[in-house]
Description:
Structural class: mainly alpha
Radius of gyration: 20 Å
Oligomer: single chain
Mean pLDDT: 84
Strand order of the largest sheet: 1-2
Helix content: 40-55%
Low-confidence stretches: 133-139
Number of helices: 5
Amino acid sequence: MAAARDAEVGGLGLDWTTEPSILDASGLAEWYRLAEVYASQPARFREGDRAAVAAYCSWWSAFAVSAADVRDRGPVVEGRSDHDRGRLVKNPATVAMREASQQLRYWARELGLTVDARVRIGLADQSEPDGDNIDNPFA
């Protein structure tokens, strides 16, 4: 009966040692960071969640690359087109960073990686702001 229930909810716990081939070094670093964070909760993510976790890690990588470009070159760069040559324009990496940020937010909610998402799916613990922590005046 337990095996049937596991199959219904996405299979057994996610095998973090099997790396998604789509991830680059930054995405793999996030993959293994999540593996470490959730090591004590082996069924927190299931094999059925593999694509979603890989998508989150892939968007993390896209965010990191574009954020590094904005950090290194700034939010404005010299224009390269004939029309923009010789003047400053918005760094195209800011658009990529914004898109990646939106996707990260989406996947973080889907995977229960935010406080709000954990409360929504019943995973919040007492130390989180939305838990019943009466010792926290800001909760």
